[in-house]
Amino acid sequence: MYIHNSLWNARAFDQPNPTPHMKLLYPLCLGLTLAANPALAAFEAYKITDPAHSVKLDGVVDDAVWGKAAARGGFFESQPADKIAAKVNTEVRIAYDAKYMYVAVKAFDPKPHEIRAPFGRRDKISGDQDFIGLFIDPGASRQAAQIIYFNPRGAFTDGNFTNTNGEDVSPDFDFSIATARFDGGWSAELRIPFTSISYVAGQSAPWNLLVMRNMTRDTRYKMWSGQVTRSSACLLCFSEPINGLAGLPTGLNWSATPQLVMRRGTDTVAGAPRQNNSDIALSLDVKIKPDSATVIDATINPDFSQIELDAPQLSGNTRFGLFVQEKRPFFLEGSDMFQTPFRAISTRTMSDPAWGARYTRRDAGRDLTVLTTRDAGGGLVQLPNAYHTDFAAQDFASQATVARANFKRGKLSLGVTGTDRTLFDERGYNRVLGPDFTWQRSDEERVRGQLLLSATTAQPDAAGKLVKGARTTGHAGVLEWSREEEKWGAWASVEEVSDGFRADNGFFSQVGYRLYVTEFSAKLGKRGPLNDLNLYFHSERKADTLGAAIVEDTTIGAWMKGPRDIEFNIRLKPKNKMRVKQHGELFETAQVWARIDASPGRTLARVSAELELGDQIDIEGARLGRGGLAMLYARLRPFEWLEFEPTYSATWVDGRGALVDGRRLYTEQALQLKGIYHIGARDTVRMILQRARTKRDPSLYANPVEGESSRGTTSFVYGHTATLGRAAYVGVTLSKGETPGHAPRRQQNELFVKLSWQI
User: Fold this and answer.
1) C-alpha to C-alpha distances, 58 to 9, 120, 121, 178, nearest whole angstrom
2) Which residue from 306, 476, 502 is spatially nearest to 392, judged by alpha carbons?
3) Which segments of the chain belong to CATH 2.60.40.1190?
4) Of 116, 186, 190, which Cα lies nearest the Cα of 148?
5) How far is it, in rounded angstroms, from Cα 127 to Cα 564?
6) Phi, psi of 117 (to 5 degrees)
7) Span 24-51, mean pLDDT?
8) Is the confidence at residue 331, as pLDDT, over 70?
9) Model confidence at 316, in pLDDT bands (50, 70, 90)?
């Protein structure tokens, strides 16, 4: 990845700056022109035929090429107002040659001194800053797109987007970006290799593009190149064709990325000698593109150590397994294809692959991906049921294979998912297969569903170890309907997962239930200082296979949005019911929940707070208490090159009843403090401090429980990213944990160096 920034070298725009009155009239006039001439809504790509007229990537839109490329403006605002012409002008130009597509953007701003342009790491663009978003749909399906968001500093986020599942910023693409300032705003130039985009070179349908502009000032402004409205359930339906792209390249491309990881560490357990360990590992990732639509990935002896730590989660008072996001590079190619109504595929279940291979193809009519790895194990296998999640040790090697195909036919897409986990040493298998569909009936209405069938012979024995046993089968099915209108929205879902269903390559923390959900919202629009006010009603019932209620939930709430990007959401749950074990008591609870998010300014860029109070269930004691849940988060930028992100979460339960009334049964707290110092666009120093603590009073429990446990991690990492695939990291991680009476104090320290260089 190459990033050039001439941000503070302000240069005059090549046209006279408009007067304040013209700045307001121009987008309105252009919006009316586009409405009267729909053909003008398309983007026009200029083909560079003279090598002497190339694009100098400096962020300043003054090359001769841009004088010949058509400027596309006429943006529309969807926030804070909806369905009106944007109040500021944005221009987009597109050009291309035999190797690259170039995009130039000019973002006019009547108050350029208020532009928010902090440094940022990859995939950390957020709504509290100025940025441009590109949604590139080379298949012209209006269902999926590659995304690139970038701010005036050159910081960026990339990934994929689908109408049904939103954005996935896990995948990384190769492209170059440069940004600059001019007297009336900021500008950017992007150079995107065609090898970074999956497309069919000879397809007749033009590519589609949607451009979004975000500005956060007194409030948050969102503007689009298409007439996006808040009542739509199909964002990409507002993308427009890119005319003029022809003769695009195809043919063989490849890259190889060796990686070297060196570690040295210590492991100290109280009462035992200290263990020293060190190793040096060399791995290889290979990427081959036999044509413009196909990617083949392979990895040998990969190192899957994570540079970024998983955030601590409150887990002490929960019955079910917790989902963890995938962050390992090999699994990210085509990861958006795995997103279906159920989490049928979760690559985090592949704990320690010795090697892996993947085939991915995208074209106008279908998407296909197949991934297989030899997993050495070492993790956990979820064994879910209706009331909790059990686990089995992954003390085995296995072959894990997942596949997904999606066929697109206009507003209808049909998919099929298949997974197989075969344990070595004849210890059985788990297999899942089933279809799914999405029907975008209109811009406002969507129907989707999925059916999965499983077969399993890898069964837990009396000790909880997976061995070959009797074949069991199961099913999982879901059907969802949603509709978004200007004045109202509605959503309904029915879901059933049988007792015998299991997906060892997916994420199912609960099975053996039937769930019905309905939700309705009344959109009241602007009310006084509020830009939006919605009232909503939510109802759901989840029952086990015998018909006994697990959850009965009735919620009324209000959501509102105001200045400073403030969002406030409050929910009242006056009389809900929950059962925590089979044949157990059905507890009645009453709770109030609220959350507020805001972007106050440059220094306090983002703040979030969440609070739940009322009846809480003590899962370990299977009894009703009083308590709550609290969460605080902030993003602080005292300088544009320095940021801090503190997060604090806590949950607690106090007893109810004669013997425990008012006494604290359970407390859990988790703290994360993240600090990032940006030395430049390519170099950062990152610090993460994590602490978590769980505490119970054993005297208040009938069964033996852990009285107190604590864990903590401190991590320092210096990272240098030259380009995609060429990076260096040096870091130290210090971890400790202790559960008095159950697990002795343990201290683990590690120093590591990780190098990768793409050939």
Assistant:
1) 10, 19, 20, 5
2) 502
3) 2-243
4) 190
5) 11
6) -140, 65
7) 62
8) yes
9) low
- Sequence length of the chain is 759
Distance CA 52, CA 199 (A): 28
Q: Under CATH, to which class is 2-243 assigned?
A: mainly beta
Three-class SS state of 357: strand
**pLDDT (mean) for 156-167:** 90
Q: How confident is the model at residue 319 (pLDDT cuts 50, 70, 90)?
A: confident
**Rounded Cα gap, residues 266 and 395, in angstroms:** 24
Give the separation between CA 711 and CA 697, rounded to whole angstroms: 19
Confidence of residue 555 (pLDDT cuts 50, 70, 90): very high
Which is it for the CA torsion 517, 523, 524, 529, positive or negative? positive
Please state, as a whole number, how many other Cβ atoms lie within 10 Å of the Cβ of residue 680: 11
Give tens-digit pLDDT for 617-638. 998 888 999 999 999 999 999 9
Mean pLDDT of the chain: 89
Helical (H) or strand (E) element with 589: strand 586-598
pLDDT in tens, 244-285: 999 999 888 999 999 999 999 999 999 899 999 998 989 999
With beta carbons less than 8 A apart as the criterion, state whether 517 and 540 touch: yes
In angstroms, rounded to a whole number, what is the distance separating the alpha carbons of residues 667 and 153?
43
Q: Which residue has the tokens 């050159």?
A: 154
What is residue 530's DSSP assignment?
B
Q: Pick from 661, 651, 573: which is nearest to 624 by CA?
A: 661
Of 342, 30, 1, which is closest to residue 164 (Cα–Cα)? 342
Pick from 369, 373, 255, 368: which is nearest to 304 by CA? Answer: 373
Q: Categorize the per-residue pLDDT at 706 as very low, low, confident or very high, splitting at 50, 70 and 90.
A: confident
Span between the terminal Cα atoms of the chain, in Å: 14
Q: What is the pLDDT of residue 310?
A: 57
Helix and strand totals (H; E) in the chain: 2, 41
What residues are paired with 666 via a beta bridge? 653, 696
